[in-house]
Amino acid sequence: MRSRRFRQSFGAPARAAGTAEYTRRYTTEILDRADLTTIVSALSSGGTAALLCVERDPEACHRSLIAQRLAERHRVTIEHLRPA
Known about the structure:
Largest sheet: none
Number of strands: 0
Mean pLDDT: 79
Structural class: mainly alpha
Radius of gyration: 13 Å
Strand content: under 5%
Helix content: 40-55%
Distance between the termini: 34 Å
Number of domains: 1
Shape: globular
């Protein structure tokens, strides 16, 4: 529920712009409270996982912030897939 309220407070232009306020609020209100260790421990060592969202570009979405956190704190290799 918290995530839905958060998304409703930011329209697509604010997310697409990658605003500092969006990043700050998402990090403190959502990401800092998430236990990503549980997710990382569920990944197989040679496997592949995907973060999906309706946003076309990762920069316009929370998934880029999650991916960055996974890379920095859990050494997960990230590759953003973009449509051709």
